[in-house]
Design goal:
The chain contains eleven helices and 13 strands. The protein is of the alpha+beta class and 330 residues long. The strands form two sheets. Strands 1, 2, 3, 4, 10, 11, 12 and 13 form an eight-stranded mixed sheet that branches. Strand 6, helix 6 and strand 7 form a beta-alpha-beta unit. The N and C termini lie far apart (56 Å).
């Protein structure tokens, strides 16, 4: 007989409660034009709630390198310190500009995996990335021409290249990718921000997105890898230095700028957990709905060990929360 494990504890609900707190704090700043205030509110909320969870966490992907935040920085210890030792990746708001401008697609995001299994890019905050969902996993190659990747993904999905939609961050640095996709005949969806949500979209059959392509954030790449580990998708990435000082930093700190990192290079281990809560309305998750003394949040929880993906709507009584919580819910 095959030995089977007794189901162990799933951190998903604990993590979702953290992302709910961050999302509610940030959502108060929706459309108010201040992305720093939105981000700081989410950081404060996420850090306060993380401290209540029984885990011994070290932040590997945090706010410090890219956003110069004083809290949730790389190397910070989070959690109660009494639980399992884990690496932690956070993005209190993936899409601060989206939130500040009242635009769709912003998320509060958190992932954990066993200690020592998450890639830390340090000060190298950008990556060249390609990602697909489970149907096309194993068919992509970051070093291959864009047209070849599109043909292979189309073949895996039983479609033509002109049926595919590629999601790309709308940045000048990605213009070559945009031109190559257009030349190949595939469709494009350009986004202002939020490439964690964009990578997840490739693994959702109802999203209409077949591939993510282009240069985006390194922290977002690791968070996307955590989600795709749970969903069966694939991401490949290569560090992208912005200038000569980052090339020198990479050489001094042992980063190989030519190496192609695959999903498990970015997030290894066997028990990866991922949670996200919508800040603003998006195709993946709805944003926070406020009404009087209440709020409704919309979250997802994933786990690589079991492949489970759970969606959750939560109804919050803000009057009661203000009486018992140290977090400012506005």
């Amino acid at each position: 007989m095959t030995s089977r494990e007794i189901p162990d504890r799933n951190l998903g609900l604990d993590l979702a409660r953290v992302t709910e707190t961050a999302a509610m704090a940030a959502a108060r700043w929706q459309g108010r034009g201040d992305k720093e205030a939105a981000d700081q509110a989410a950081v404060d909320g996420m850090r306060a709630h993380l401290g209540t969870i029984d885990l011994d966490g070290v932040v590997v992907i945090g706010e410090g390198e890219k956003d110069e935040a004083p809290m949730l920085h790389n190397g910070e210890h989070v959690g109660s310190g009494h639980g399992q030792p884990v690496d932690v990746a956070v993005d209190p708001v993936d899409g601060t500009t989206l939130t500040a401008n009242g635009m769709p697609g912003a998320l509060a995001v958190l992932a954990v995996s066993e200690r020592g299994t998450m890639f830390s890019p340090g000060s190298l905050v950008y990556m060249d990335k390609i990602a697909v969902g489970p149907v096309a996993a194993g068919m992509i190659d970051l070093e291959a021409p864009v047209e070849r990747n599109l043909r292979r993904v189309a073949k895996a999905k039983g479609e033509d290249v002109n049926d595919l939609t590629v999601i790309i961050l709308d940045r000048p640095r990605n213009q070559a990718y945009i031109d190559a996709v257009r030349a190949a005949g595939a469709r494009i969806r350009l986004i202002r921000d939020g490439d964690v949500s964009a990578a997840i979209a490739t693994a959702r059959p109802d999203s209409g997105i077949d591939m993510l392509l282009g240069i985006g954030g390194s922290p977002e790449g690791v968070l996307a890898a955590a989600a795709l580990r749970c969903m069966g998708g694939e991401i490949q990435a290569r560090l992208w230095p912005r200038d000569e000082s980052e090339v020198e930093y990479a050489a001094e700190n042992g980063y190989d700028l030519k190496a192609i990192m695959e999903t498990r290079d970015l997030v290894g281990g066997t028990n990866v957990s991922f949670a996200a809560t919508g800040v603003t309305d998006g195709e993946f998750l709805r944003g926070v709905d406020f009404h009087g003394d209440g709020a409704v949040t919309h979250s997802v929880m994933m786990r690589s060990k079991t492949g489970s993906v759970r969606y959750m709507d939560a109804y919050h009584n803000l009057r009661r929360l203000r009486q018992v919580s140290a977090v400012d819910y506005g």
